[in-house]
């Protein structure tokens, strides 16, 4: 039947545009989980330091992370990617990491931010390299998104350094 053919097309390993679905699935799933975890870290930091002098800075970074998560939620639907089964773990672990680092004070929270954002930036750079090697034109939209988010993460990293993360 005609309907079965279209369903079958969605389950193939290469989409109509020639985009390799396993690569896209892996990138979107991992990045969604990372952005979800980052949101939970900032939620934990805000729970502890939200009313302190560093609260508005954490909130600003968290707002960008919320935008990142929203975009990856949209990409998951558009590309039919299932979320990681580990989201419940990221929920708890991210909040505990954020709150725990914030209990050490502003410097502890910013040290956590620098470490996490550096790791995420490196991860995004690896994805950018992989997509560029594969075919930059086919992955143009995803590359633009990842590059922008990588730049935002680097900005968060630098904000952490400016607010005594190394102390």
TrEMBL record:
* Gene Ontology biological process terms from the UniProt entry: determination of adult lifespan; regulation of gene expression; regulation of reactive oxygen species metabolic process; ubiquinone biosynthetic process
Q: Which domain of life is it from?
A: Eukaryota
GO CC, sorted alphabetically, is: mitochondrial inner membrane; nucleus
Listed pathway(s): Cofactor biosynthesis; ubiquinone biosynthesis
**What UniProt keywords apply to this chain's record, in alphabetical order?**
Iron, Membrane, Metal-binding, Monooxygenase, Oxidoreductase, Ubiquinone, Ubiquinone biosynthesis
PANTHER family of this UniProt entry? 5-DEMETHOXYUBIQUINONE HYDROXYLASE, MITOCHONDRIAL (PTHR11237:SF4), COENZYME Q10 BIOSYNTHESIS PROTEIN 7 (PTHR11237)
Q: What is this protein called?
A: Ubiquinone biosynthesis protein COQ7
The species is Phaethon lepturus
Identify the taxonomic lineage of the organism of origin. Answer: Eukaryota, Metazoa, Chordata, Craniata, Vertebrata
């Amino acid at each position: 039947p005609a309907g079965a053919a279209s369903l079958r097309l969605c389950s193939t390993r290469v989409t109509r545009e020639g985009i390799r679905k396993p690569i896209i699935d892996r990138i979107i799933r991992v990045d969604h989980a990372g952005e979800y975890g980052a949101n939970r870290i900032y939620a934990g930091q805000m729970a502890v330091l939200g009313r302190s002098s560093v609260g508005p800075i954490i909130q600003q970074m968290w707002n960008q992370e919320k935008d990142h998560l929203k975009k990856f939620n949209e990409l998951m639907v558009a590309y039919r990617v299932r979320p990681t089964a580990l989201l419940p773990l990221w929920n708890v672990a991210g909040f505990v990491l954020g709150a725990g680092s914030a209990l050490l004070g502003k410097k502890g929270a910013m040290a956590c931010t620098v470490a996490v954002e550096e790791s995420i930036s490196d991860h995004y750079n690896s994805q950018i390299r992989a997509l560029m090697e594969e075919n930059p034109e086919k992955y143009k939209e995803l590359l633009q998104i990842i590059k922008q988010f990588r730049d935002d993460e680097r900005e968060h990293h630098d904000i952490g350094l400016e607010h005594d993360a190394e102390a």
